[in-house]
């Protein structure tokens, strides 16, 4: 690999701007802790966890974070109102133990979970669940890093070839959305 470009490489002093763009791209896909889940996901997650065993609120938060591989950590401000709503609906009950409320499913809650076709969000194959969706930003960032490397160290011909590859990739990605 040779660099026939002036000091600062092909991108000149604007190379930092490319890395800034890569970081901005990455940040658009990251789901910061405490962000809102899709409609019904927290409810499904809480019911799925309580179907396994009784838990207190912070155990529920930790389990969701662990099972979603860190991509989703609901806040206490969303978990506790959900637990209260489920209690109001008669699906969970709370029992005081060592100064903490331990939540468990009621008979109605167990029946609801058993009859529900809804999967726990971490078991779902939907894009928002983190399955395939988690791989997309990683692949995009890796692609941007490879493009930056070509821009930094490639010849003008290599850079032009990389531009054509990226344009084709963009067209192919949009064609995926156009499919039925």
Automatic annotation (TrEMBL):
Pfam families: PadR. It comes from the Bacteria. InterPro entries: ArsR-like_HTH (IPR011991), Tscrpt_reg_PadR_N (IPR005149), WH-like_DNA-bd_sf (IPR036388), WH_DNA-bd_sf (IPR036390). Residues 108-131 are annotated as: Disordered. Residues 46-113 form the Transcription regulator PadR N-terminal domain. Residues 113-128 have a biased composition (Polar residues). This is PadR family transcriptional regulator. It comes from Arthrobacter alpinus.
């Amino acid at each position: 690999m040779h660099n026939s470009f002036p000091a600062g490489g092909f991108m000149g002093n604007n190379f930092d701007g490319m890395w800034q763009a890569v970081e901005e791209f990455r940040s658009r896909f990251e789901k910061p802790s405490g962000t809102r889940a899709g409609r019904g996901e927290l409810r499904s997650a809480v019911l799925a966890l309580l179907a396994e065993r009784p838990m207190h609120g912070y155990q529920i938060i930790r389990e969701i974070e662990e099972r979603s591989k860190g991509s989703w950590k609901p806040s206490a401000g969303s978990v506790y109102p959900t637990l209260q709503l489920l209690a109001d609906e008669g699906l969970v009950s709370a029992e005081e133990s060592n100064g903490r409320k331990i939540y468990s499913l009621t008979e109605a809650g167990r029946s609801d979970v058993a009859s529900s076709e809804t999967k726990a969000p971490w078991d779902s194959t939907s894009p928002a669940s983190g399955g395939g969706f988690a791989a997309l930003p990683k692949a995009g960032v890796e692609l941007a890093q490879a493009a930056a490397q070509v821009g930094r160290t490639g010849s003008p011909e290599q850079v032009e070839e990389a531009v054509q590859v990226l344009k084709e990739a963009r067209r192919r990605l949009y064609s995926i959305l156009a499919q039925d």
